[in-house]
């Protein structure tokens, strides 16, 4: 792919995603609620990807995505740890696993585990048979 095509594609993706965030109400002020041990800068870097994922499952009449809780699920060891961030998207609540790493050069990285997110409908329980 040429550099120009890649630049145009990247710009189109940025404009589309920025437009979606302007249309939706994304609630995530740093510091986030809960017990995250990620630095405020790392929280801010991670929020965009988490919010973009939340928008993927929003319904056509839903305009609110919020991070409502954070918790450490695997303690920090060798500058790596895991957390679970709770998202509320409309009437759905999901627990999204995220792995954080502090690199040797002082930078940080994160990996969202979309395959292991657990969703439930808020305020509703299953009927007993």
Short synopsis of the structure:
This protein has 129 residues and is α+β, with helices and mostly antiparallel strands. It has one domain (3-121). Helices cover 29% and strands 36% of the residues.
List keywords for this structure.
36% strand; alpha+beta; 2 helices; six-stranded mixed beta sheet; 129 residues
Outline the structure in words.
The protein has one domain. It is built from 2 helices and 6 strands, in the order αβαβββββ. Strand 4 and strand 5 form a beta hairpin. About 10% of the residues have low confidence.
Structural shape: globular
SS element count, helices: 2
SS-based class:
alpha+beta
| Rg (C-alpha, Å) | 17 Å
Overall pLDDT, averaged?
Answer: 80
- The number of E-state strands comes to 6
Low-confidence stretches: 11-23
Q: List SSEs in N-to-C order.
A: HEHEEEEE
How is the biggest beta sheet arranged? 6 strands, mixed
User: How much beta, percentage-wise?
Assistant: 35-45%
Topology:
Blueprint: H1 3-23, E1 25-27, H2 40-56, E2 64-77, E3 80-89, E4 92-102, E5 108-112, E6 118-121
Parallel strand pairs: 1-2
Antiparallel strand pairs: 2-3, 3-4, 4-5, 4-6
